[in-house]
Amino acid sequence: MKNGRFSLFESSCEMPSPWGLAKLRGLANLRVLTAVIMSIGCSLGLQAQTKLAVSTLSELRDAVQKSNQTIVMAPGRYMLTDLPVGHRDVPCSGSHNTIDLSDVYVTVPVGTTRRSYITISGDHNLFRGGVFEDVYPNGLKEVTDFSAYNQNRSTLAKGLSGSAVLSVTGDNNTVADTKLTVRGSFPYGYGSIYGIGADNVYGLDKRCGILVKGKQNIIDGCEIQQQAFGHGIYMQRPADETVVRNCLVEGVMRPSNDLYLETDPRDLPVRSDYRIPETRRGGRNGSRNRRRGRPEREPETTPANLGTPIPRDTMIPLSEDGIRVYTDGGSVTVENCTVKKMRGGIRLYLASRATVINSTAVDCGATNFNMPKNGKVIGSAGNFAYAPLSDFRLSKSNQDIELTIMPSPHLVGPHHVADILGNNHNIVFHRTEGPLDVNLRPIVVVGSGSTIRNETEYPVILQATASANSVVSYGPVTDLGSDNKVVRIDPPGDNSTQP
């Protein structure tokens, strides 16, 4: 007896009593039960290590709905239309699977499915590899004639009703080394001008890259070429503890002046009188009518809702955000990622917590970075070519920011280098090596209580609302606020200071 309990491995030379015999019979039965449980566990372990080879999308589709497998698909080129209508997807509902799609290339003709065609709803899966490319039936690779594109709603300007190509709703999954080329949406070529939600004007049909809605998921080493209106990688409720690392998200930009070159009466800029509508009363019904095959409801075009003219001499991002968190989308860590030419680059201001490490966001159209309260950016870089390096959206405070400002010789638009809203930040701006920039846009501060070290040549302007900030700056400082402490420094590497 050990600690008042009998061990299965005890032995005795004494003749057991009748009560003891009964007990031994119970112990024997327990040994059998234990052996059965161990056998089942070993069986599952062996099953998880057994490779299942598949060579068709149909076989893959069947396999990923089961659990505890290593599924390896034969390298080659496949088409989603190899699957029958109504089953054109890869529903990974199984758990504890490794799904290896190395050297697998899948084309997805635009318009042949109306939903996410990769869904990972199981838990503890590794989805690895695979190149998935949306292709236009007419062979079009790059949209340059936006007039013709948007008038072809049946085979070109056709999205997924707002869904993402790849959706992760399960927990503890990893998507690794997967490339998506995302094409097909309406309208495309105008960014957010005609609305992004229920208030859209002409009927919205988005197509996004990767959506994460589960917990503790990892997106690692993925590439998204976002050539449709929609997000690259984004998190929605109830996502939490998401990690996005080693990823590239790249969109497309378009000069706003090009919209004035569209003159066909059916072109959207003509229909909106080259203005950004303020009242989008046709949006919800327009989208519903389009799905039901009814004519779109024409938006009202009274002077009260025509809005402001489409701006000239700016750049319009044709997609939404590169890496985005929505309200209740939980916490996120972004590491060693690059975002280019999206509306917002690394846009995490609605996250519960967020850390960005060694990442780059450049040439984005609304902002390159923004963070939530207590957000951290470490060892990262960005430019201000078409939008601020950071816009500190919603004045979120207490951020710890370290960013290297990259010169932007192709600068377009009237924005600042950065707009520092909110209070009590700790901010360091480094500069890249090389000659001083000649585009000396300012870093503008409107909040209070922040410590800012500016090692760059860009000037700092402390607005009238800025107070009790501590600024150490190589670039000139204009102090229009109150109780701010300002110290000038020489270029980094020189220890002397200027009062």
UniProtKB/TrEMBL annotation:
Q: Where is the composition biased (Basic and acidic residues)?
A: 270-281
The ranges of region (Disordered) come to 270-315
Against SUPFAM superfamilies, the record matches this protein to: Pectin lyase-like (SSF51126)
Q: By what name is this protein known?
A: Uncharacterized protein
Q: Which organism is it from?
A: Allorhodopirellula heiligendammensis
